[in-house]
Amino acid sequence: MSRLKALSPDEATGKTQELFNAVKSKLGVIPNMMRTMGNSPVVLESYLSLSGLLAHGKLGAKTGELLALAISEKNNCDYCLSAHTYIGEKLVHIDANTINNARNINNADAKTDAALKFAAALVAKNGLVSDADVNTVKAAGYTDGEIGEIVAHVALNVFTNYFNNTAQTEIDFPVVRAHNSVEA
């Protein structure tokens, strides 16, 4: 059972209604996470803004989805794992094996693998990564700007993971459970 209410689009007013209309025009639906974030238009707008800006980054949609899967697995967020598995498969066309590998912080491509491992280190170390962690991701071919984008993807996904784990948002995608899923 959800701890925080997902607003019905019919009951949204003001800025929340405006944001819901924008989401619906883009996606055709308003996912439960965004409906729940809509209780605070600032929260929803913050999420939409950062997510939208990162979509135009150098890392690209595929790497962004793989990072989301790795981070969501680390944070045991079933909602985000479900959403990003669906998005990865249906919209970005990532195969099931690559999705599963990302959840286990692995990728056949050495550069992508380095990004996943760096993101996992950021999560595990609360951002306090070592010189060796940074040097390893740089050696894989990432620029300072791209490393900044990896950090931003981690921040975005920690935000959504913590939000959904707190809210216990009802999953409105085919359900995927974290390997170490815990009932709250």
From TrEMBL:
The keyword Oxidoreductase applies. This is Uncharacterized peroxidase-related enzyme. The lineage of its organism: Bacteria, Pseudomonadati, Bacteroidota, Sphingobacteriia, Sphingobacteriales. Residues 52-122 form the Carboxymuconolactone decarboxylase-like domain. PANTHER family: CMD DOMAIN-CONTAINING PROTEIN, SI:CH211-175M2.5. It holds the Pfam family CMD. Keywords: Oxidoreductase, Peroxidase. InterPro entries: AhpD-like, AhpD_core, CMD-like. GO terms for molecular function: peroxiredoxin activity.
